[in-house]
Amino acid sequence: MPGYNLVDEPWLTARPVGGGPPVELGMAEALARAHELEGLVVEFSTQLPAVLRQVLLPVVAHATGAPQDLQEKGERLAQEGGFTKDELDKKLLPYLDEHHAKFDLFAPEAPFGQVAGLRTAKGETKGSTALVATAASGNNVPLFASRTDADPLDLTPAQAAHWLVHAHCWDTAGIKTGVVGDDQVKAGKTTGNPTAPLGQLGVIIPTGRTLYETLLLNLPLTPPDNLGIPQWLRGPHQPAWRPRKADGLLDLWTWQARRIRLLPHQDETGQLRVARVLISAGDRLTPVPEQEPHTAWTFTALAKQSGKKPASALPERRPRRHTQGKAAWRGLEALLAPTRQSSDGVFETSILLDEVSALQEDDLLPVDYPLQVETFGVVYGTQSSVVEDVIHDAIPLPLLALHRDSEAHQLLLDVAEQAERLAQALNNLSADLRRAAGTDPIPWDKGQRPGELLLRTLDPLVRRLLAGVRDAGTDEDVLDRGRLAWEQLAHRHTWDAANALLLAAPATTFGGRALDQPGKAGKTQTYRLGTAGANFRRKVNEILPRHADAVRQAAAARVAETGPAFDSDPAPGADFDY
After folding, report:
1. Which of 35, 116, 118, 438 is the most buried (most CB within 10 A)?
2. 288 by DSSP, 3-state: which?
């Protein structure tokens, strides 16, 4: 059977800088041309962090070393030509030559990311759909899937490579096939398997202008002793698995969460394809190490035990997962939280974003550097044994916003909070109008509440504001105009949504309806359209104070106006680039 080596074969697809059709290339060429490529193109969004962590980042880190300090990282980021000639000719390419055989997807003795000879007692295998998160397989049936478990799925070697590393990062939990040599097998199965490591995180990937910059941004400062070695140098994996700690950063990145074997065949045209696979239990990561660079963290105070003091004075620190249906900017409080904010706050940003902040503070990255932050996550269902949804978003993130004492930092936190409060105010208006009409409010966990629709409407405004704040830099006047422009537009869209509710209210809401107040015997509260509208107006003005002040000032100016019409003047904040 022919081989398929990831070093040479064109399994990666990338976008060239400046546009043009995507190009397909092997790992060696992708790294040599990393400064010419804008980024990778993948079939399924969560494949991107899998390819970076399982292959590209560990190759770069092991061959060239991770940055030792901020100065080194800043200097390497500033290399406009990507990897230097010395880095390519004396480190990266020799490394790939030396370990070339380790990257053969179908090598008979040590196939990349797999266990050679993996088999069950009865020799069963499964269709390749078991490897593909988007395909129907067993209990994992994606919504509206057109393919059934019985339909054959021939994967190209490039597709198989992407789904292989994806399984090591994101595979579902639960029952896995039992294989020969695994002493944990009972009745042909293993149970209690957790999700693969990235399934337990809210993954955060900082991206730069080129693939080269993205690789450097995702290499955390790591002493050589803490790097460890990647999976392809750990020796052949055995069918038996064990729970263990990660032995360094490279072990963490290339974690073998499953024992997998791809079974290739040649189709009628002689092309290599993968239609059958075997997936069994793999090593269990215990616990998520503090050196994990691709997640933000949440602090939870330890509960007191029977009136005794907590077991530790420090709060529990655990990875922060993304919330289904929420845009990335709605989690800015975690992305912008300063490092080690354990006593006064709840969140801590990722190691990589913390380093980006430090790079800018030391003038190793310009204030207007066009940093993008991509977020990834998987929503599992039924005891994490099926994939229900995939989370992916990308937002521009101004570097100054990463500094706790900057105007940009506070502005973005305020805007995110204002958007949430406007959505809640609209939901309250809807609830009051429904009570006035004699019906119950929409439950928070059922139906489509108007506040969620408003947040979708505000989403492009917030993204434009993020880009505008980055361009504004330290100019506080521009930031003030941007804040006012945001409040004006947010006010307009919020009232558009509110007016739709008010106009749709039935005539009975004018008279209203009296309801008993919970916990207050004999007391009632009357809900009517006029009261609901007045309360909503007051709340919106409280949430958007700069817009409310601008309106009051404009009204006062009109009263005192004796010259040209006020309407001929530009609106306050209109010069901010929205």
Report:
1. 118
2. coil
* HSE, side-chain direction, 13 A CA sphere, residue 120: 19
Joined tokens for residue 197: 């490591």
Closest CA to 59 of 25, 96, 94, 22: 96
Please name the helix (run of DSSP H) or strand (run of DSSP E) that holds residue 163, with its range, or none. Answer: helix 157-170
Residue 212 in contact with residue 52, Cβ under 8 Å?
no
Domain spanning 406-578: which CATH class is it, in words?
mainly alpha
Strands 243-244 and 284-285: parallel
Say if residue 549 is exposed, middle or buried (CB neighbours under 10 Å; 0-12, 13-18, 19+): middle
Instruction: Report domain extents, the chain.
Output: 12-177+222-281, 406-578
Residue in this structure with the two tokens 């390819």, named with its chain if needed: 51
pTM to 2 decimal places: 0.89
pLDDT, mean of residues 122-145: 74
Which residue blocks in 275-388 are alpha helix, DSSP H? 332-335, 351-361
Take residue 141 and report the two structure tokens written for it.
Answer: 């049936």
Do residues 198 and 299 make contact, with C-beta atoms less than 8 angstroms apart? no
Cβ atoms of residues 55 and 158 within 8 Å:
no
Q: Could you tell me the CA-to-CA distances from 331 to 89, 396, 416, 488 in Å, in that order?
A: 42, 13, 8, 23
DSSP string, 22-81: -EEE-HHHHHHTGGGEEEEE-SSTTHHHHHIIIIIHHHHHHHH---SSHHHHHHHHT-TT
The average confidence (pLDDT) of the chain is 89
DSSP 8-state secondary structure symbol assigned to residue 466: H
Q: Which of 568, 413, 397 has its CA nearest to residue 483? A: 413
Q: Give phi and psi for 380, each to the nearest 5.
A: -100, 155
C-alpha angle 549/550/553, rounded to 5°?
Answer: 85
Taking a C-beta distance cutoff of 8 angstroms, is the pair 325, 455 a contact? Answer: no
* Cα gap 318→210, rounded to integer Å: 31
User: 30-60: per-residue pLDDT in tens?
Assistant: 999 999 999 999 999 999 999 999 999 999 9
Are 425 and 392 spatial neighbours (Cβ–Cβ below 8 Å)?
Answer: no
What does the pLDDT look like over 414-456, one tens digit per residue? Answer: 999 999 999 999 999 999 999 998 888 888 777 788 999 999 9
Task: Tell how far CA 491 is from the center of its chain.
Answer: 29
| Over residues 62-71, mean pLDDT | 96
pLDDT value at 305 more than 90:
no
CB atoms within 10 A of CB 4: 24
